Amino acid sequence: MCLICDRIKMIQNGTNPFFVKELETGYVVIGDNQHFYGYTLFLYKTHNHTELFQLDKEEKAKFMEEMTIVAEAVNNAFHPEKMNYELLGMGDAHLHWHLYPRVSGDIGSYGNHGKGPVWWYPMEKMYSDDNRPTQQQLEQLKERLLTELDKLLPA
Questions:
Q1: I need a surface site. Which of 30, 85, 89, 118 has the fewest CB within 10 A?
Q2: Are the C-beta atoms of 92 and 3 separated by less than 8 Å?
């Protein structure tokens, strides 16, 4: 079983503390670690496709549209200088977007004099327990994001 599928089962069971909102094609969750403040994921609902090109035209368009709505909500909630988007899948071959709100200096002196993609920051630092939000911080992150999602999504 994949980690994303496990997380989705937790959402469906009401036990995923990082869950924010269900959309038509996926689930919005706050990232477990918050080195990049507001880090959010958008998880495709099923594991029956592992590549964007495998989705039919309508589903692909809806998934992409919803991802951009989530990205806009992340931007509005956390006010980064730039948004970074990743859809990788070698770790978990389940369609899911990583949405990284970025600000100057967020990778320290790593990368190209402090500039570059998130993966130029050491994983052990990015995923350190020091970057896990407290319960209160997590609730604040979720509330801010949900407020912005609700403004952008049709009623």
A1: 85
A2: yes
Q: What are the pLDDT digits (tens) for 31-46?
A: 999 999 999 999 999 9
* Tokens describing residue 135: 């319960």
Q: Which residues of 126-154 are buried (b: 16+ CB within 10 A; e: fewer)?
A: beeeebebeeeebeebbebbbebbeeeee
Q: 106 in helix, strand or coil? A: coil
Pair 23, 123: CB distance under 8 Å: no
Ranges of each domain in the chain: 3-147
Best CA proximity match to 45, nearest among 64, 69, 28: 28
For tokens 């899911």, the residue is 96
3-state secondary structure of 2: coil
CATH superfamily of 3-147: HIT-like (3.30.428.10)
At 86, give phi and psi (nearest 5°): -140, 135
